Amino acid sequence: MEENQAVQYLESLIGQTLRVHATDTRIFVGTFKCTDSARNIILASTYEYRFPSPSAIQHAATDAENQDSGIAAESQNVKVNMTSRFIGLVVVPGQHITKIELEETPQQSRVRETLRKS
């Protein structure tokens, strides 16, 4: 991709909701405001999501095992929610970004598909 095309693409993402994955497994979901040459990303109205700790998973597994003592423990699936918190404006350092995803509503997805076909 040429530099001009890359700039235009980044400009088209301004104001869109991005999901940014970090090296420490955190996920930031917020409105893309800008980036810089070091690939730092600034997000506004951001939520931070974290995977549950091993102790929280163990606690949930123990609770499930106690409730369903008739089911074999190895065949049991346990669901544990990610934790989240609102952090507002955040700078995600480029060196710690592992993946960036555009979060679209179903309506935005349909519009994008319609534009591709025409």
TrEMBL record:
SMART domains: Sm. Residues 8-102 form the Sm domain. SUPFAM superfamilies: Sm-like ribonucleoproteins (SSF50182). Coiled coil: none annotated. GO terms for cellular component: NatC complex. InterPro entries: LSM_dom_sf, LSMD1_Sm, Sm_dom_euk/arc, snRNP_SmB/NAA38-like. PANTHER family: N-ALPHA-ACETYLTRANSFERASE 38, NATC AUXILIARY SUBUNIT, SMALL NUCLEAR RIBONUCLEOPROTEIN-ASSOCIATED PROTEIN B AND N. Component of the heptameric LSM1-LSM7 complex, which consists of LSM1, LSM2, LSM3, LSM4, LSM5, LSM6 and LSM7. Component of the heptameric LSM2-LSM8 complex, which consists of LSM2, LSM3, LSM4, LSM5, LSM6, LSM7 and LSM8. The LSm subunits form a seven-membered ring structure with a doughnut shape. This is Sm domain-containing protein. It comes from Aspergillus leporis.
